[in-house]
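Sample pair:
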Amino acid sequence: MNIGVDAGGLCVKQGYGNYIFTVNLLHAITQFDKVNNYTAYTFCDSHPFQNRKFIYRKLLPKIGWMKLRVTVEEFLNQKGLFLALNQAFPPFTHGKIIAFSHGLSFIRRPDFYKRDFSRLKKQLDEYLKKSDVIVTTSIKVEQDLYKYYPKLNKRVLTLLPGIPYDFQSYQFKKRKKYLLFVGMNHQIKNVDAIIRLYLKIKKESNFKDYQLYLVGHFEEYKSKDIHIFPKISRARLKVLYQEAYAYISMSCYESFNFPVLEALSQKCPVVALETAVIPEIKKFVNLAKNDGEFIKILKRLVMLNSIQHPNKIAKKDRDDNELKTLFSWEKYVTCLRTLYNEL
């Protein structure tokens, strides 16, 4: 089967969720699908993984890229399927459309998306109407789709993305006295709550020497004890996970949350609000309901670290093999190929 792919996510800022998802899925496809032929459309020179059955086509101009340029390409070169990886697709395509839904945070918290709500809502309505199947990143997103669109008559399939390829190995590092957060500077990430928590925990005698590391554009929070990393390589980020005492997340809503999975893959304990993690990953993290529980859990992690090996401080001494089995790109692509045959 010939399949068209929206690989425009390769051309956005590296480190954000859409980029991480796109680059890793394309890598997985080249590894685990030797049967189908793929044409990945981009508007930049990022062509990370290809083989004789997976080629890239750089289409310009960027303006009107999906509605005009990709549409022309799909019209001239007939495909059996189109993978809408970034929740957008051309107005015309010969094949079936599989839309990938990465979350409904703007529906759950419209007050955080006042400028973008209308655009995002229109985009959502369009891909729910025109797609043949919708693939989500968690049962949480699937349930939200049916909750907010009770008359939705499309098939919705939940597939868990795998651990990013560059985080599938681990090197032991001595833990350092800092807490870590990675993400966009957006209200949905609830960074003000993280700052509030950190200032509270600094008053505890066990944490007076601890610092807070924020990876992303959080320059307004910079201080003597709060370190900002606006631009950082993936290799350096991997080390930050390995050396952190804990990764903390207090997001108001998450549809997947790659940083949590990355932290877990590097044996970094995660403490999070329930709203900040998807149901499938809860058993691997330490859940807290409020600041008091956050501080209590962090104290316990520090105590455990003082009496045993740092790799043993995560919740229930988690089974790394279970994490790798649950979040597997091979399994993802296998399920995707099965879906192709069912359409």
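Confidence is low (pLDDT under 50) at residues 307-318.
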